Model the fold of this input.
Amino acid sequence: MKIPKTSDIAGIINKIAPTALAESWDNPGLQIGDPAAEASRIMVALDPTPDVINSALKASCQLLVTHHPLIFKPLKSISTATPHGSLIHKAIKAGLSIVSLHTNYDIADGGLNDLLARKIGLASCVPLKVTTVRELVKLIVFVPVEQLEQVRSALFPFAASLGAYRDCSFAAAGTGTFTPLDGAKPFTGTVGDLSKVAEERLELLLERADLARAVKALLAAHPYEEPAFDIYPLLNEGARLGLGRIGRLSGPVTLADYAGQLRGALNAPTLRYVGDPAARISKVALCSGSGASLLHDAVRAGADVLVTGDVKYHEARDAEDLGLAVIDAGHFPTEIIMVQEITERLDQSLVMAGYTDFQVEACRTELDPFRI
Done:
């Protein structure tokens, strides 16, 4: 029986949405709780509201995973005399840890904006506003021919993709030499004698953020006591990550028809749009939650429409002036879709990591605060 700890789940979440991607004003990660505490029952929700926390406690959960953080700004006090302080106090007293993944999940490859893009029928999506360009490094390691596949397989999970191609590497044959000294325990050869070994020079591209884990995997898989490897920084650009997405529909539709399609796809009770109902839409920009600040980015990218939430009156007027259609599908409908997705991804990741005693469930009590 293997039970995950809060830190184990936080680690999985950090792989899904690295905290380094988050906006500077944001506060994702462990909000409250003991990283070493066991978390056999986990609930996933959009917001850490009183109703959600009560649902988690009723389900005997030890961990609540949310999109919106419980704590955004530094707290001067935690008093039960305030609603926020009372909520924090209640969770701590009950032993409920809370971990959040916010703008880091919005920005991450395969994150919330990619999920929203799939929901609303977009293809060939790229970030609308690039905030991060991943640094690349080249890892070169020298491996005995017989162990090449063993080491390469250990490193493939960390290899950077080249466009639509994964598991990219290069190997070239050569001869390695070494003389083991006193105290050495060579995999092959004899202490004091020069050894010549048929080796392969194995090369892979890695994202710099994955380098430490890749080297750890390399050392575990390599047969040598002291593997020889080189790491080179590169000028090549890695993956471009950022806020929002822009992509294309399979065919043009009118703005009014597309708004109707979105209402059904997002299960939104209603939505608002700005623009000519008969305008033809094919290139779509989006940003889950509140994305009206990306109006100009959408125009620069050549979008016909921006799909987002929380659009204000003057932002709608700005969109009219810019000639950009806008669909306000609401903050809640464009983000609640993360709950089922993260529930499934956590469950799959925990199974793959070998954990056996756990349960991940989606919170089913959340409602949009707006009534129409």
Q: What stands out?
A: The first strand starts at residue 29 and ends at 32.
